[in-house]
């Protein structure tokens, strides 16, 4: 492996030498030498091959310009393409490391005819603060070739790569199907996999692990027991009290006066209204989300299916037996897009929580993110506090995460609204259309008239479309037209500027969760 030393693109220092001699002379004393430290910053690339031609080697890593661009972004990895002119060449990646090395130049001069008389001169060329090391394996390669009927391989480069503007005949020519994936392997480091059985797949082993507190290494981690009770719409009975494990769990973590206050507030909420969504609870009670996972199973059970799916129901209350529970049914609403709705997928008024642009490519380095605090840490901090502190709305969400009103945009592209939280007069009239005439609770429509949910979705979609169309002319006239950025996620950045007002007004606070994300995994 040959090291390649290049000047730091960010360094403005110059290295001036006369006739190959160093500016700084080495002071030799016995077997040691004292050298002056240079201010030149260098970047080292540990090239994973023998370098016979420097120009060819530089071309394989993108040239000096490519190295400079990679160095300017600390999150990128250095790409090495052994066939730089091949568009289908999958590169090897070099990781970036901080280093404190010196580049030392040593010259040895020997007088002709007298090898005993030798002169050695040394100088420090510069400081190496960054080193790129190719420690992984290169990805699998797939050549753009095709086997003809005679068994000979035929190159497809001239048939599939546009080197100049072509006429229609070029596109009409038959070409073999060639659709290689962008990458074959997402990992470039070797992993030992011995095909051992998953130690936590069986229920017995998982329970033994919990009881013995063994930290077993396995592909699947043990479920965290939060002791919630799940009820399906077809179940004959509903629970009237929590599991004993849920009571023990909450008593264990309820150590601070604020926790007891939150429990009292939650009971008052369920007395006022027997069915709540988790986001609605988090918008009314200020409690840490990790403690909320233990408090909810203590006062309510969770509906899995039916018109109250994904909602928490007070113990002892069966919404299938009383028509008054109609207003607590859930409405699964998703923002529609298309030309008939006034906006496409790229200019939707509500930004996604996750985007394909945020996909982790092999060219980037996964930075370590701060780990969330565990419930144990929260309990220790609460117990160690010397006195009651003033309550803050640190964990409260905005009302827009569960309430819909006219003239507003949902904070997420998919929302689970309860019918009582749709604060629109036209919607209320449709919900109460059959008041007093409810006969059967259906699994799809509950106590409502059939296809009520479809009608409500059409109304909300029309209101959102009107809101977007009403605000679009004002935003387009006030804001200048910007040129498209060359970054990958420029489309989302431009759209965010058009809806800054909406994002500021309806953006959920930190720590909020999209209710689309199921809560089942937290409680199984």
Please tell me about this protein's structure.
One of its GO terms (cellular component) is nucleus. A five-stranded mixed beta sheet has the order 1-4-7-6-5, with helices on one face. A four-stranded mixed beta sheet has the order 10-12-13-11. It has 524 residues and is an alpha+beta fold. Among the domains are: 2-15 and 22-133, TFIIIC, subcomplex tauA, subunit Sfc1, barrel domain (Phosphorylase Kinase, domain 1), CATH 3.30.200; 333-356 and 377-480 and 502-513, no CATH class. Mean pLDDT is 76; it is low at 9-23, 210-220, 368-391 and 474-518. The chain has 15 helices and 17 strands.
Tell me the Rg in angstroms: 33 Å
Strand percent estimate: 15-25%
Alpha plus pi helix count = 15
Low-confidence stretches: 9-23, 210-220, 368-391, 474-518
Q: Give the N-to-C terminal Cα separation.
A: 51 Å
Structural class, from helix and strand content? alpha+beta
Helicity range of the residues?
Answer: 25-40%
Envelope shape: elongated
User: Describe the biggest sheet?
Assistant: 5 strands, mixed
| Side-by-side strand order of the widest sheet | 1-4-7-6-5
Number of strands: 17
Could you give the topology of this structure?
Blueprint: E1 2-7, E2 27-29, E3 32-34, E4 41-47, H1 54-60, H2 63-72, E5 78-80, E6 92-111, E7 114-133, E8 145-147, E9 153-155, H3 157-160, H4 168-172, H5 203-212, E10 230-231, H6 244-253, H7 257-272, E11 275-276, H8 278-282, H9 289-299, E12 300-303, E13 312-314, E14 330-334, H10 375-384, E15 404-405, E16 414-418, E17 422-423, H11 425-431, H12 452-478, H13 490-498, H14 500-506, H15 520-523
Parallel strand pairs: 4-7, 10-12, 15-17
Antiparallel strand pairs: 1-4, 2-3, 5-6, 6-7, 8-9, 11-13, 12-13, 14-16
Helix pairs in contact: 6-9, 7-9
């Amino acid at each position: 492996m040959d090291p390649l030393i290049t000047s730091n693109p960010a360094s403005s220092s110059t290295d001036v030498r006369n006739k190959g001699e160093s500016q700084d002379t080495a002071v030799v004393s016995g077997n040691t030498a004292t050298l002056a430290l240079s201010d030149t910053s260098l970047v080292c690339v540990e090239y994973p091959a023998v370098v016979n031609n420097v120009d060819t080697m530089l071309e394989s890593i993108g040239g000096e310009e490519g190295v400079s661009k990679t160095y300017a972004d600390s999150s990128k990895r250095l790409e090495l393409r052994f066939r730089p002119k091949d568009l289908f060449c999958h590169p090897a990646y070099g990781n970036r490391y901080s280093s404190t090395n010196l580049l030392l130049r040593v010259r040895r001069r020997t007088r002709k005819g007298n090898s005993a008389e030798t002169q050695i001169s040394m100088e420090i060329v510069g400081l190496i603060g960054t080193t790129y090391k190719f420690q992984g394996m290169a990805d699998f390669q797939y050549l753009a070739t095709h086997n003809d009927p005679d068994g000979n391989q035929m190159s497809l480069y001239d048939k599939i790569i546009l080197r100049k503007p072509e006429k229609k005949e070029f596109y009409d020519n038959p070409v073999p199907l060639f659709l290689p994936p962008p990458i074959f392997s997402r990992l470039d480091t070797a992993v030992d996999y011995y095909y051992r059985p998953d130690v936590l797949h069986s229920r017995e082993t998982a329970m033994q692990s919990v009881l013995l507190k063994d930290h077993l290494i396995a592909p699947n981690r043990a479920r965290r027991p939060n002791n919630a009770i799940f009820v399906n719409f077809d179940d004959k009975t509903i629970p009237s009290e929590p599991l004993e494990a849920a009571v023990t769990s909450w008593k264990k973590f309820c150590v601070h006066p604020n926790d007891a206050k939150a429990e009292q507030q939650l009971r008052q909420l369920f007395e006022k209204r027997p069915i709540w969504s988790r986001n609605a609870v988090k918008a009314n009670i200020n409690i840490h989300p990790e403690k909320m996972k233990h408090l909810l199973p203590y006062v309510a059970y969770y509906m899995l299916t039916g018109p109250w799916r994904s909602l928490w129901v007070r113990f002892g209350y069966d919404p299938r037996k009383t028509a008054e529970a109609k207003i607590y049914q859930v409405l699964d609403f998703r923002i529609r897009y298309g030309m008939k709705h006034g906006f496409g997928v790229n200019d939707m008024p509500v930004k996604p929580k996750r985007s394909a642009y945020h996909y982790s490519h092999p060219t980037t380095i996964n930075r370590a993110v701060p780990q969330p605090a565990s419930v144990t840490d929260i309990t220790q901090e609460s117990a160690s506090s010397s006195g009651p502190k003033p309550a803050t709305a640190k964990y409260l969400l905005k009302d827009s995460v569960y309430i819909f009103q006219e003239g507003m945009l949902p904070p997420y592209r998919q929302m689970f609204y309860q019918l009582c939280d749709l604060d629109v007069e036209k919607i209320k009239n449709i919900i109460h259309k059959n008041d007093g005439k409810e006969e059967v609770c259906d699994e799809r429509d509950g106590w409502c008239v059939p296809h009520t949910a479809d009608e409500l979705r059409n109304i909300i979609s029309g209101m959102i479309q009107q809101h977007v169309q009403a605000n679009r002319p004002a935003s387009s006239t006030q804001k200048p037209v910007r040129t498209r950025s060359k970054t990958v996620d420029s489309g989302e950045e431009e759209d965010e500027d058009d809806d800054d007002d909406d994002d500021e007004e309806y953006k959920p606070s930190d720590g909020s969760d999209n209710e689309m994300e199921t809560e089942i995994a937290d409680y199984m």
